[in-house]
Amino acid sequence: MKALRVFGVLLLHVALVMSSTQICQDVEKSGCSIITCGAPGKDGEKGEKGERGIIGLPGFPGHPGPPGDCKDSVCEDLQSKLKALEGQLKAQQTESFFFKGRARSSDKIFLSDGDQGNFNEAKARCTNAGGQMASPRNSDENKAILSINKQYGFVSYLGINELETPGIYRDPSNEVISYTNWKENEPNNYQGIQENCVELQNTGKWNDIVCEAKRLIICEFFISRG
Ligand code: MFB
Ligand code: CA
């Protein structure tokens, strides 16, 4: 816009110079001697401010704005539903990412983030999370824990151990266990080495192992029935 105005002023100036030259030549032709034609004189004083010009051309269209300028209630309804669905999808994606290893029994929930560790690491993880290492008390719980093994494709630790009294297996609260699901010929303290901890193999059967072995960490949390 500014460039256009500057150009216009320049054009006007050229036109004026040309017309004054024309007048000068015309006078010369008519033999008039009053006006002497020489080099152009100094610029005159700045004139008064001119009148406001005509309105300029419209500008280019702007960048597209954010979507969402609905024109009717149908659009508004769809838009709010879409927004809600997007929120739900995001929440579910987050949930399935963090809780892939999840299973339930009547009064327990079993959780695993897929990490592996030795017995002490597993025990610390689960107690720090407010639970304890998964310790099946019946075949239902054993199945639930097994389902997590299969989700990750790893063999898991159980909280059951004979650390306190060799030959006597206890759960994390130090109770002597009643339910067992040992594999054939287990527990065996293989090759005369004390295997004080227990793994849940992917057949669902138990095997005693050394507590330094790394296995899938699965924790259990009691669900209060109200
Ligand atoms: C043994 C088992 C032991 C080890 C070993 C590799 O069975 O009892 O705990 O897992 O396999 C032969
Ligand atoms: Ca064994």
Give the distance, in angstroms, between the N- and C-terminal Cα atoms.
76 Å
Q: Just give the CATH class of the domain at 91-222.
A: Alpha Beta
**Rg measurement, Å:** 45 Å
Number of helices: 4
Order of helices and strands: HHEEEHEHEEEEEE
Task: Write a brief structural summary.
With 226 residues, this protein is of the alpha+beta class. The chain contains four helices and ten strands.
Describe this structure in words.
With 226 residues, the chain is of the alpha+beta class. It has a domain of 132 residues: Mannose-Binding Protein A, subunit A (Mannose-Binding Protein A, Chain A, Roll), CATH 3.10.100.10. It is built from four helices and ten strands, in the order ααβββαβαββββββ. The strands form three sheets. The chain has a four-stranded antiparallel sheet with strand order 1-2-10-4. A hairpin with a 5-residue loop joins strand 7 and strand 8. The radius of gyration is 45 Å and the shape is elongated. It starts with a helix and ends with a strand. The N terminus is likely disordered. Methyl beta-L-fucopyranoside binds next to strand 8.
